[in-house]
Amino acid sequence: DKIRQDEHAAYVEDKADLEQGLAGVRKALSVLRDYYAADESALIQDDGSLSSFMQQPAPPQMHEKAGGAGSSIISILEVVESDFAKNLAKVETEESDAEADYDKITQENKVAKTSMSQDVKYKVAESKSLDKTASELSADLETTNSELAAVNEYDAKIKDRCVAKPETYQQRAARREAAPDIGACGHS
Known about the structure:
The chain is mostly helical. The chain is built from 4 helices and no strands.
């Protein structure tokens, strides 16, 4: 913004200088054209009420208009006028282009800033949502693990009660010796 303000201030100063120069050159051209185009009486100041008090001096006897020098001066001033007008148009065009570019960049920056702030807002919301989901899933995992541990414990108790464990050889031998001999009683 500061750079743009400096550019605009330089433009205002340059434009004022060029307009002032152009006005001066045009005024000089007008005076010179009037002088070289008109007769001697064109430059006499004549106001009816003052004519009785003021007398115009008689023109010098040797004075003549230098027509050739006058036309070359006029043509030089016309070139200068053209240059001033061209430079003024160029400065005005450059200023309008710079202003348009500045406005365009400013608008693009506003859009980019708005877009980025919305992106940040959405990313923060998404992050909060993901944090909440992660904590819910962690709680679900803890619950599932505790349920699994309870099921495994119950399964172990059931297996102890319901699954027949094979007897070892020593246990069978001990049981046979403790039992009465059925073969001696039943067969004689």
